[in-house]
Amino acid sequence: MIMKDKVLKLLQKAGWFEGRVVDVIKYTEFLDDEGYFVFGSAINFLKEYGGLIIEFENPKKNR
Questions:
Q1: Range among 3-7, 8-12, 54-58 with highest mean pLDDT value
Q2: Are the C-beta atoms of 38 and 31 separated by less than 8 Å?
Q3: What pTM does this model have?
Q4: Quick one: average pLDDT of 35-56?
Q5: What is the pLDDT of residue 59?
Q6: Is the confidence at residue 60, as pLDDT, over 90?
Q7: What's the CA gap between 61 and 18, in Å, rounded?
Q8: What 3-state class would DSSP assign to 25?
Q9: Please, what is the Cα angle at 22 between 18 and 26, to 5 degrees?
């Protein structure tokens, strides 16, 4: 399995799908409260990938 396929499988297992959009207000408020400027590209990223929890096996653990 090539890397692209592995990444896609992990993202989908975490709940990602093409066209996914989540409310990012909790992220942007937190970052704003911490004094960070939130770029539009960061907001777009968070809308698609925010809240996902990716679980993977450590290949070194099975040696």
A1: 8-12
A2: yes
A3: 0.77
A4: 94
A5: 76
A6: no
A7: 32
A8: helix
A9: 150
Domain boundaries, the chain: 15-56
Distance CA 21, CA 45 (A): 10
How far is Cα 3 from Cα 63, in angstroms, rounded to an integer?
20
Tally of residues, the chain: 63
CA distance 25 to 29: 6
The two tokens of residue 44 are 């777009």
User: Angle formed by the axes of helices 40-49 and 25-33, to 10°?
Assistant: 140
For residue 50, name the pLDDT band (cuts at 50, 70, 90): very high
47 neighbors 22 (Cβ within 8 angstroms) = yes
Query: How far apart are the C-alpha atoms of 7 and 54, rounded to whole Å?
Result: 10
CA separation for the pair 35, 29 (Å, rounded) = 10
